[in-house]
Specification:
This protein is an alpha+beta fold. Helix content is 35%, strand content 33%. A five-stranded mixed β-barrel has the order 5-6-7-9-8. The radius of gyration is 24 Å and the shape is flat. It holds the Pfam family FecR.
Length: 329
């Protein structure tokens, strides 16, 4: 008779087997939008599902490294026309294994067209899918509003909430007095600290933009420390920090109303932003068209308004393909 421990073990083994199946399927190069949605649902069933996939992926990466070491250690043939049979088989196996493991690693980190969450997404403490927004109360003093495609990890000091690491995406933070230390947000190589403030942090394409919406906060990056007051913002990346600038709070927080506001923004940047809110991908085929400046307010729930605008204003051709892919030319 099977006891509870045996049943639990069988369940874990089944989850792990399914996780390996997903690793192989995502590496096949034939994953579809439906596969991506099914994978997202499977990972979302429990933390154990997400953890099993992460562990299986790590095993594949370990196999890749071992295969590369085997290939590097394989002896060179002694003569041009003589190749030891075992060496040839080992080298081929190592190269094929390494290629498959590498593809799994890449597809898990950078899923094509975001058909499924990346391994970083599913392993984050908090994550939002494409088009999703969430509100989270971390404590009585700290509340988060997460925008689309956002991944966040929390960290503690001596058991107490100390801050979050914004791995990618965008979040609005409300920090109220009451904590022993200022609340921190880490983004890229910078640190934001606030005791009594409301602020927005956006970390997209290796660039960070911090906007103070109320109160005051401190932004540190490299060897610089800057204080921001209400309606001020600052940006930084690997090249350093830009000067403090005035901010339009209504535009910065428009996403909270599920709106996107563009003020003389190049069309190519508008498309990049829209792609963060919808499944599939909008692809601009005309680089000259992408230079046009856009002045518009768009609902993230009415994508057809955007395509109609592009057709009417610029006479662009719009082509819809399966999988949510849209070509603009």
């Amino acid at each position: 008779m099977m006891n509870d421990t045996d049943m639990s073990q069988n369940g874990s083994d089944e989850i792990r087997q399914h996780a390996m199946d997903w690793v192989i399927r995502l590496a096949s190069g034939r994953a579809t939008v439906a596969d991506g949605e099914a994978f997202r649902r499977w990972c979302g069933q429990s933390a154990e599902h997400a953890r099993a996939f992460s562990e299986c992926r790590q095993n594949w990466l370990g196999m890749q490294q071992a295969a590369q070491r085997e290939a590097a250690a394989a002896p060179e043939p002694q003569h041009d026309n003589v190749t030891p049979i075992n060496t040839a088989r080992l080298t081929r196996r190592a190269l094929l294994g390494g290629a498959l493991a590498a593809s799994v690693g890449w597809l898990a980190v950078r899923p094509p067209l975001r058909l499924w969450p990346s391994v970083y997404d599913i392993s984050a403490d908090y994550h939002t899918d494409t088009g999703q927004q969430r509100e989270i109360a971390l404590s009585q003093q700290v509340q988060l509003h997460m925008n689309t495609q956002t991944s966040i990890d929390i960290y503690r000091r001596q058991g107490a909430l100390a801050g979050i690491t914004l791995q990618s995406g965008e979040t609005e933070v409300i920090a109220r007095p009451g904590g022993e230390y200022p609340f921190e947000v880490l983004a890229d190589n910078g640190r934001i600290q606030a005791t009594d403030a409301r602020f927005n942090v956006r970390y997209i394409d290796r660039a960070v933009c911090v906007t103070c919406l109320a109160g005051q906060l401190t932004v540190e990056h490299s060897d610089r420390s800057v204080r921001l007051l209400t309606n001020q913002q600052i940006s930084y990346d690997h090249n350093g920090m830009l000067p403090v600038a005035a901010a339009d709070a209504a535009q910065i927080t428009a996403w909270r109303r599920r709106m996107l506001v563009f003020n003389n923004t190049p069309l190519v940047q508008v498309i990049d932003e829209i792609n963060r809110y919808r499944a599939g991908k909008v692809i601009l085929m005309n680089s000259e068209l992408g230079k046009n400046l856009v002045q518009a307010q768009l609902s993230v729930d009415r994508f057809t308004d955007f395509t109609s605008l592009i057709q009417q204003v610029y006479g662009a051709n719009i082509r819809y393909l399966p999988g949510g892919v849209v070509l603009i030319s």
